[in-house]
Amino acid sequence: MHIVVLGGGGAMGRITARALAEDARVKRVTVADLSEATAQKTIDWLEQGREKAVAAACDVRDADGLAKLLGGSDVVLNATDYPFNLDVMQAALTARIPYADLGGLFHMTRKQYELHGAFAEAGLTAVLGIGSTPGITNVLARVAADQLETVERLDVRVGSADLRSGDVPFAPPYSIRTILDECSLEPMVFADGKTHAVAPLTGQEAIAFPAPVGQMTAMYTLHSEVALFPVSFGERGLRHASFKIAFPPEFLDQLRLLVDLGIANTAPLAVRGARKGQRASQASDALEVGHRGGDDVDAAVGVVDPVDRHLVDAQAAPLGEHEQLGVEEPAVVLDVVEQRVERLAPDRLEAALRVGEARSQNGLKNSVVSA
After folding, report:
1. Is residue 29 pLDDT above 90, yes or no?
2. DSSP sequence for 9-31
C-alpha cells in the first residue's frame, strides 16, 4: 500500500509518517510538504522504515499538481491546516483514491460532509478526523455507545499538560493557526437537538483528569466532534453534544494575550496600501448519558495520549477496502468487533471503559466492561 502524507513536515504529519513507515502493511510513504527539504527532514528523523519513504514538494492550492502527486497512490492522509481540507478532498476525487484527515473544526467539517454523494458515487471513502481528537475520542464514544440502547448526550473533555523539560517560552501542542481559531471563533454546542453558538473561552468547568494531567479547568472551543456526533448518533437519540479543552494555565494566558492583541483575527488589514491577512501530552474523556435496557446510566471512556509516541493506530487497509463508502467519521467506519479500544495499546495509549448500572438512591455503581 502506498500512502501520501500531506503536511508531512509538520508536527502531526511527522508523527503520522512515522506510524505509517513502521507499519509492515504500508510499502511506500510519500511525505509531501510545501518544501521538499522540509519533507526530507521528516524522513531523516525516522528511526524505522526510512527506506520506503520518499520526499516531495507540493502546494495543495495547485489542484492539477496535487492530483498528479496523488495519482497512483492508494490513500491520502491530509495533515495540512484544516482550511485546505476541501482542496485535498477534491484532488482525492480527481485521483480516485480514499481520503483521511485530522479534523476540520466545525464549519469545515460540515462543508466536507457535502461531498458525501460525490465520494459514494466514485466508490471512495473519506474519513474525517482520525487523529487524537477528533479521532480517538470518536472511537471511544462509539465503543461506549455500543453498550447502550440509546445515547442522549456526548460531551468531550480534553486536558493537556506540557511535561517536557527545559525552558520553552511558548510551545503550542499542535497547529497554532488551529488553536487560535479554536480560541477566537464562536464554539458550537448541540443542545436539545439544535446547534447554537456560545462565546469563545467560556463555559469553564473544573475536571479531575487522569495523571499526569490532573486537575484542570476546561472551556468551550470550536471543534469537529459537535458536527460529527449528531450525524453519527442522531438515530440513537442524541440530543446534546459539546467539546471543551483544558490548556495549561500559562499557555492559556499566552493565548488570551494573542487573542486580545488581535493576532487571531483573520480579517485583512491595509498595509502600505495593500490588503494582507492579519495573522503573522493529552488526556481526554468522551462522556455519555444514555439508556440501556430502559434504565438511565452513565458511560465514560478515558484515554491517556503520551505526546512522545503515536497518537493514531495506523490501520491503513480499511480505507481502501471498507465497504462503507462516502464521507464518514471514525466512529462510523470502526468495526467495533475487530478494532476494539485495546488496539491502541501498542502505541502506549491507556484506555478504560466503565458503564454504570441504573441510578439509585445510593448513587451510581460502575463496572469495568472493557479495558
Report:
1. yes
2. TSHHHHHHHHHHHT-TT--EEEE
